[in-house]
TrEMBL record:
Superkingdom to which the source organism belongs: Bacteria
A GO biological process held by the record: fatty acid metabolic process
GO molecular function: acyltransferase activity; medium-chain fatty acid-CoA ligase activity
Recorded family membership: Belongs to the ATP-dependent AMP-binding enzyme family.
Stored Pfam families: Acyltransferase, AMP-binding, PP-binding
Keywords tagged on the record: Ligase, Membrane, Phosphopantetheine, Phosphoprotein, Transmembrane, Transmembrane helix
TM stretches of this protein: 179-197
Organism from which the protein derives: Desulfovibrio litoralis DSM 11393
CDD domains: LPLAT_AGPAT-like
Protein name stated in the entry: Long-chain-fatty-acid--[acyl-carrier-protein] ligase
């Protein structure tokens, strides 16, 4: 082998790696290095790139590497020095990865053309099993097609399967940036006195591929590589960590495959639709048989970019996002993706037992002395720091761990300019420490709703004076793919994934020390730095432009204390968080309740994925659901369609509904599927933090929105007195305008928006704009928004009443959509001669529709004048019907 200029990095690795690895190098001395070489190694573990580089670093190969891996603190400084070409991963980065991959391959080809060396992993990822899987990958094949005479040296590494740097160790990808992973490595070095670490035998063989099939198809080419690497297969081998444990290898079982639902349980119609889509997309013969077990890579030859194209087609056709392309392996997986069940397979190796550890007899309380939510959370940490608080399918965080994350992030957030910071995140565990960190940094989080569109988002940013938005790469990529032009927003984006790579070891150590000092009450938490303005939310914008609603610490804690007390929430309760945190009820569940009371919360970012939500409820034994009726309805539909008799919702004891009126059919279905549980409908308004009234499990009445919370006062005012200036209360059982008073009520909108307060009986009340009645026992009954009434023939006509009757009539229609409302009712808006218009995806007869209204006892004034057929009823991100969009549709139709 020809001598080259010494590489200090490879020399250092040659010295350090033998401390743990007994390396046997074969064939390298036979490789001539006087011309350009393309090195192709297998990838059994994340440590093998360092081992290989220690041997060929003197050849200075250009290396194609995953940009996510190279952004890690210990690696990102080496990118330029080691001639590393970073590319995005299509399996994780979505459609934006395509251009990055193509550019990376072009750079690598250019490097080889210049007579230099290069290295690329044919598999494109770390091994998921002891076999190297290359079928379907196209990167190396494209290079050889472009450079048919290129010298190729294959590298076969054996001995690392079972290493803590491999998938075999935990059944998932090693988390190199996890401080606990790093600490374990340091402990191993220290307690083995550096030089006595048990050795793992690793064999690296270099073979020049003279017989590489260059003039062939991709499938044959990749099979050749797989056959070569197959000789490196080994069992899951664990080596002791410490010298006193000996040096005898231990053979362990292979990591289990992720659990997936059976695609055969899905309808024949859906299976046929998916197969037809795949055949059309890849121009397969119509009569070609596609088995559900057919591999998308091995049998159909799809590479990462093709899988990306397929996932996008599935999402467009069936409305279900594929969160992880690595789970899309077979035709059957495509069927599960179309049914919204594929992502439920993304489970952690084992649900931690600590998640279920609790006491049924321990009631949750909120520290009455706490001046704000962060201070209430510190009390929870001091009382029981090791109790779990947040969880999703990939990770679980205890109270103390969440405090640590917030303290570390708060140092970064202090550097953000301005007193308010936008937060654009779905219902994910990260939203809780992000909110807490912003508060500890002295900032007010502004929760932004991305479903309102670019114009409304611009309006919200200007109103709240936001210059920076904290979000995630995955959400940003998905929103861009959906057509939302985020680049047009006048803000700086702070992506959490990128932010994580800037956190230094010293930041983590200081955060760790501070957390321990707080935990053991050696450092008092300074609550005076926490802003009184706890959050800014926005009204839904279903009828007008969104209004900015600032809520104080007192507003939110008053509401949280009421809810925790009247619902008798205990330490054993676990709540499902699926509503986005820009939704006032979602914010209460995602952030306020868990932080202030210690209520355990399980997150899922998409409230429309009923099957996945059911799986989360079942696996994590969730006892409380908080949802909008449409989302719960979808969950019940998925639960109802299970072939076995066991419901996934048997752990549920309470389900709380808000955001829209709960249909009677939903009550009935819920009772049938969850006889052990109680469905409690409530009523809330963003301006009220948000809950005003709720049914309790002991006294729930179908159709009622419950009794008012202990801290809330209400008055129901006669409509005809609103314009006279002399307000009067209605008599018992009569309908009137709801006025609300209490410490949970906000102090007024941001900007120039007129504030909705009026004086009555010498006190200031919030004017809700909603019409209600109250029975003799104090139960409220929602009658609709005043804006959702029109005046016909001198009578006030309730559009929600018409809508409710017709939904009940057509909910089980044979063509009713599986998800979303079956219809909506709106008026033309012409005050002189308003028309009542029905929107529906169904083909309905106007005479028949009005007959239903007559049979329900409504007068002829309650008649549909026009039916507009739409593909789907537009919804807001909160699950409410978007009446503003319907108004626009009426204008466009006219």
């Amino acid at each position: 082998m020809k001598k080259h200029k010494n590489n200090i990095y490879s020399s250092l690795l040659k010295y350090l790696l033998p401390l743990r690895y007994d390396l046997e190098i074969k064939g390298l001395d036979k490789i001539k290095t006087d011309s350009s070489i393309l090195f192709l190694p297998n990838h059994p573990a994340l440590i093998d790139p360092l081992i290989i580089y220690s041997q060929i670093g003197n050849l200075y190969p250009a290396v194609l590497a995953d940009e996510r891996q190279m952004k890690r603190p210990l690696l990102r400084r080496l990118v330029k020095k080691l001639n590393i070409i970073t590319i995005a991963d299509p399996l994780k980065d979505g459609i934006s990865a395509k251009k990055s991959v193509e550019q990376g391959l072009d750079k690598l080809i250019s490097t080889l053309e210049q007579g230099k060396n290069a290295l690329i992993y044919p598999a494109g990822q770390i091994n998921r099993s002891k076999q190297s899987s290359i079928s379907g990958k196209s990167g190396v094949f494209k290079i050889i097609q472009a450079l048919p005479n290129q010298r190729v040296v294959l590298i076969r590494t054996k001995g690392l399967w079972g290493s803590r740097f491999s998938y075999a160790y935990s059944g998932s990808a090693p988390k190199l940036n996890d401080w606990r992973f790093i600490m374990k490595i340091l402990f191993m070095l220290i307690f083995n006195f550096l030089f006595f670490i048990p050795k793992r035998k690793v064999e690296i063989e270099f073979v020049e591929a003279y017989d590489l099939p260059r003039d062939t198809d991709k499938k044959t080419f990749n099979k050749y590589l797989e056959n070569f690497y197959s000789l490196a297969e080994q069992k899951n081998t664990r080596i002791p960590d410490f010298f006193w444990q000996g040096n005898t290898p231990k053979i362990l079982p292979e990591p289990k495959n992720q659990h997936k639902s059976d695609p055969n349980e899905q309808s024949l119609e859906l299976i046929t639709q998916v197969k037809t889509l795949i055949k059309k997309l890849y121009e397969l013969p119509k009569d070609q048989e596609l088995d559900l077990n057919s591999s998308l890579t091995k049998d159909l030859g799809l590479d990462s970019l093709s899988l990306l194209e397929l996932s996008t087609a599935l999402e467009n056709e069936f409305g279900q996002a594929v969160l992880n392309l690595e789970s899309l392996e077979t035709v059957g997986d495509c069927v599960l993706a179309a049914a919204g069940l594929l992502n439920e397979s993304e489970v952690i190796k084992e649900i931690p037992k600590a998640w279920f550890k609790s006491s049924k007899n321990t009631r949750l309380t909120i520290d009455p002395k706490a001046q704000n939510i962060p201070e209430a959370f510190i009390t929870q940490v001091l009382n029981k720091p090791d109790l779990p608080l947040t969880v999703d399918r990939t990770t679980m965080k205890k109270r103390e761990e969440l405090l640590l994350a917030a303290l570390i992030l708060s140092k970064k957030f202090k550097q953000i300019k301005g007193k308010r910071v936008g937060v654009m995140l779905p219902a994910v565990p990260a939203v809780t420490p992000v909110w807490l960190a912003l508060q500890l940094a002295g900032k007010t989080p502004v929760m932004l709703n991305w479903t309102v569109g670019e114009q409304n988002l611009n309006h919200c940013l200007k109103l709240a004076e936001v210059n920076t938005i904290i979000s995630s790469e995955r959400l940003i990529e998905r929103l861009k793919r959906s057509g939302l032009n985020l680049n047009a927003l006048p803000v700086k984006w702070l992506e959490l994934e990128k932010l994580a790579t800037t956190i230094k070891i010293k930041d983590k150590i200081f955060g760790f020390i501070k957390t321990k000092l707080i935990r053991y009450n050696l450092l008092k938490f300074n609550c005076n730095k926490v802003p009184n303005e706890a959050v800014i939310l926005f009204t839904s914008g279903s009828e007008t432009l969104p209004k900015a609603v600032p809520l104080t610490q007192e507003n939110l804690m008053t509401n949280a204390k009421d809810l925790i007390n009247i619902l008798s929430v205990s330490e054993s309760d676990r709540i499902l968080a699926m509503l986005p945190p820009f939704h006032s009820f979602g914010f209460m569940v995602n952030v306020v309740l868990p932080l202030s009371s210690g209520l355990k919360v399980a997150f899922h970012p998409n409230p429309t994925e009923g099957g996945i939500l059911n799986g989360l409820v079942k696996d994590y034994k969730l006892s409380i659901l908080a949802s909008a009726p449409s989302f719960l309805g979808n969950m019940l539909d998925k639960a109802k369609n299970k072939n076995n008799n066991e419901t996934p919702l048997k752990s549920v004891r309470l389900a709380f509904m808000g955001a829209e009126k709960c249909p009677e059919l939903l009550y009935k279905t819920f009772t049938e599927l969850c006889p052990q549980a109680t469905l409690c409908e409530g009523y809330g308004i963003t301006e009220c933090s948000p809950v005003v009234s709720v049914n309790t499990p002991e006294n729930a009445i179908i159709g009622s929105i419950g009794e008012t919370l202990p801290s809330v006062d209400v008055a129901i005012i006669k409509l005809e007195t609103l314009d006279t200036g002399t307000l009067e209360r209605v008599k018992s059982g009569e309908t009137g305008m709801l006025l609300i008073k209490g410490k949970n009520i906000f102090n007024g909108y941001l900007g120039t928006q007129t504030n909705p307060f009026i004086f009555f009986e010498g006190k200031k009340w919030y004017k809700s704009g909603d019409l209600v009645t109250m029975d003799k026992n104090g139960h409220l009954f929602f009658k609709g928004r005043l804006k959702r009434f029109i005046k016909l023939g001198g009578e006030m006509i309730s559009l929600p009443q018409i809508e409710s009757i017709l939904i009940e009539a057509y909910a089980k229609h044979q063509d009713a959509p599986e998800e979303g409302p079956v219809l909506a009712v709106e008026s033309s808006g012409d005050e002189t001669k308003p028309e009542i218009i029905l929107f529906t995806p169904l083909t309905l007869n106007k005479t028949e529709v009005n007959e239903y209204l007559r049979n329900a006892g409504l007068s002829n004034l309650y008649s549909i004048q026009k039916i507009i057929q739409v593909e789907t009823i537009p919804l807001l991100g909160t699950g409410k019907t978007n009446y503003r969009a319907l108004k626009d549709l009426i204008k466009n139709t006219n």
